[in-house]
């Protein structure tokens, strides 16, 4: 059987689901940028890409060289094609304006250029997360895009995906009708469809959380994780296994592959910030993918995709993965 490349998949989506040609182009360009990032990541010390910059991003995190490089690769790949009205990124304080010399398009691209930065220097999987929104109708005005244009709930996403740079480089993609997984064939330079119709099992015996923050968690999370740890002698009457990679892409990828629950709850360390992960370019795209694969994603009290964002870099608590466990921990928050 002939292999289905990402290009062929996208063209077939246009035929079967009317995927617009400019959205198809957008996804191809993002995928090309991810190949370039994958190439840089794989060079490691030989390419001089490890280590940190002297700069901080808007979150006050020290930027790694690869955070900045990946951001530049995505901007350069996407600014000239005429498919975007603007971009926003973890690594930029404000919305990125498409330079005046290029045409503008109908879409907004939001990304975490390099997720799992703390794993770069230790040769553990990292990734790129992206979300695609439509640019709201601005009455034909093409002036500078403000932050407001991006502040749409996750339900408005027209596409989302991530690339994972691990033992294999893969691209996981949803256009709103299921989740497809593509593996990079480095000899051909193409993403090839290898994982058709990815589904998250509804039940699981595996969870992911940074246990070192336990003393800061709120009561419902204390209760729930306590029950997970109690295993078959506790109220849940089964033993659970734990994984924590500290790259959201890698933890989510495991869940898409074999099920599980991922948690980054809000905690009392920085009470004014609800959790660590960012809504627009981490939680929303991942929640869209997880839901499209039959899983669920909440912030403890609300479906993540329904949250109305109020700022570009806002944070959110995240519980996502196998439906049964997400529902359980969400119910504990509601009790
Ligand atoms: P980023 O590298 O884009 O800042 O994201 C890191 C995130 C996420 O990938 C991961 O789940 C989490 O931070 C790990 O945080 P801890 O170090 O607190 O475990
Ligand atoms: Mn991240
Ligand atoms: Mn990042």
Automatic annotation (TrEMBL):
GO term, biological process aspect, one: gluconeogenesis
A Pfam family the protein falls into: FBPase_C
Domain Fructose-1-6-bisphosphatase class I N-terminal: from-to ranges: 5-195
Cofactor(s) this protein requires: Mg(2+)
Recorded metabolic or biological pathway in which this protein acts: Carbohydrate biosynthesis
Binding, substrate: 115-118, 210, 276
Location(s), subcellular: Cytoplasm
Lineage top rank: taxon: Bacteria
Binding-site residues for Mg(2+) 1, renumbered to this chain: 90, 112, 114
GO cellular component: cytosol
Listed PANTHER family: FRUCTOSE-1,6-BISPHOSPHATASE-RELATED, SEDOHEPTULOSE-1,7-BISPHOSPHATASE, CHLOROPLASTIC
Subunit structure: Homotetramer.
This protein's name: Fructose-1,6-bisphosphatase class 1
Organism listed in the record: Pseudomonas borbori
């Amino acid at each position: 059987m002939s292999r289905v490349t990402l290009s062929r998949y996208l063209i077939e989506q246009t035929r079967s689901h009317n995927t617009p040609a400019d959205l198809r182009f957008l996804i191809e360009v993002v995928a090309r940028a991810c190949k370039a990032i994958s190439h840089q990541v794989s060079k490691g010390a030989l390419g001089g890409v490890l280590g940190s910059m002297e700069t901080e991003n808007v979150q006050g995190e020290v930027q790694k060289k690869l955070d900045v490089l990946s951001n530049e690769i995505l901007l350069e790949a996407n600014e000239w094609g005429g498919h975007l009205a603007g971009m926003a990124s973890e690594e930029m304080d404000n919305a990125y304006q498409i330079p005046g010399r290029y045409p503008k398009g109908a879409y907004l691209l939001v990304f975490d250029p390099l997720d799992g930065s703390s794993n770069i220097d230790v040769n553990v999987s990292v990734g790129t997360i992206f979300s695609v929104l439509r640019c709201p109708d601005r009455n034909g005005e093409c002036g500078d895009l403000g932050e407001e244009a991006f502040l749409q709930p996750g339900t408005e996403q027209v596409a989302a995906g991530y690339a994972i740079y691990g033992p294999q480089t893969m691209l996981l993609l949803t256009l709103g009708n299921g989740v497809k997984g593509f593996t990079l064939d480095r000899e051909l330079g193409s993403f090839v469809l290898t994982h058709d119709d990815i589904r998250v099992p509804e039940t699981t015996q595996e969870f992911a959380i940074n246990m070192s923050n336990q003393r800061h968690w709120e009561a419902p999370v204390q209760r729930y994780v306590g029950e997970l740890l109690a295993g078959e002698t506790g109220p849940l009457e089964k033993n659970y296994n734990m994984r924590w990679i500290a790259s959201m892409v890698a933890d989510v990828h495991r869940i898409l592959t074999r099920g599980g629950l991922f948690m980054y709850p809000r905690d009392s360390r920085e009470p004014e910030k609800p959790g660590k992960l960012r809504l627009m370019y981490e939680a929303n795209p991942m929640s869209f993918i997880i839901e499209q694969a039959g899983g669920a994603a909440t912030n403890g009290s609300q479906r993540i995709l329904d949250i109305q964002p109020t700022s570009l870099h806002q944070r959110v608590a995240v519980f996502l993965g196998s439906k049964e466990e997400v529902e359980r921990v969400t119910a504990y928050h509601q009790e």
